[in-house]
Write a structure and sequence with these properties.
Elements: H1 27-48, H2 54-73, H3 82-105, H4 107-119, H5 123-140
Helix pairs in contact: 1-2, 1-3, 2-3, 4-5
Length: 155
C-alpha cells in the first residue's frame, strides 16, 4: 500500500474509466469504425437494393480518407477500420453505380418481367417472359434485334 490518497474522477467516481493505463479511444478510431460501418452498409445494400448503395459507399470513402489524412498529419497510425472502410467504399461505388444505373434505367422492364415470371406456370411461359424482357431491353437501349439472345443471361 502507498501513503498517497487515491485520486478520484470529478463527481467522486473511480475505476477503469479513470485508470491512466487504459487509453481513451481517439477520434481516429471512431472515424475508422464509422468508415468500416458505412462501407459494410454499402456492400450489404449493393446486394439488397443497389440504388441506395452509392450514398453510404461515398460516405465511407470520404470518412476513411479524411481519417487517414488526419492521422498522417498528426504522425500517428490511422484508426482501426479506416483502410477497410476506404476499400469497401471504393468497391461499393465501383459496383453499385453501374448496378443502380441499370436498375433505374430498366425499372419498368424489370417489373414487367417479374410480374410475367410470377404468373408463369410452365418452363415455356418462363422462357417467353425472358424473351420478351430481352426484346424490351434491346428496344430501350437501341440494340440490334436478337443481340442479347447470344449471351446466356441467367434470369
Amino acid at each position: 500500500m502507498t501513503d498517497q490518497p487515491r485520486q478520484e474522477a470529478p463527481g467522486g467516481e473511480s475505476g477503469p474509466a479513470t485508470d491512466p493505463m487504459i487509453p481513451a479511444p481517439d477520434a481516429g478510431d471512431r472515424a475508422g469504425r464509422w468508415a468500416l460501418a458505412l462501407g459494410s452498409t454499402a456492400v450489404l445494400l449493393m446486394i439488397i437494393f443497389p440504388p441506395a448503395a452509392p450514398l453510404p459507399a461515398a460516405a465511407a470513402l470520404v470518412v476513411g480518407i479524411r481519417a487517414r489524412r488526419r492521422a498522417r498529419r498528426a504522425a500517428r497510425p490511422a484508426g482501426r477500420g479506416t483502410l477497410a472502410g476506404v476499400v469497401m467504399g471504393s468497391i461499393g461505388l465501383a459496383v453499385s453505380i453501374p448496378l443502380a444505373t441499370t436498375q433505374i434505367l430498366l425499372w419498368g422492364e424489370l417489373h414487367s418481367y417479374l410480374d410475367c415470371r410470377e404468373a408463369a406456370n410452365t418452363i415455356t411461359d418462363q422462357q417467353n417472359c425472358k424473351d420478351t424482357f430481352l426484346r424490351e431491353v434491346e428496344n430501350k437501349l437501341n440494340l440490334r434485334a436478337g443481340s442479347l439472345s447470344h449471351y446466356n443471361i441467367p434470369l
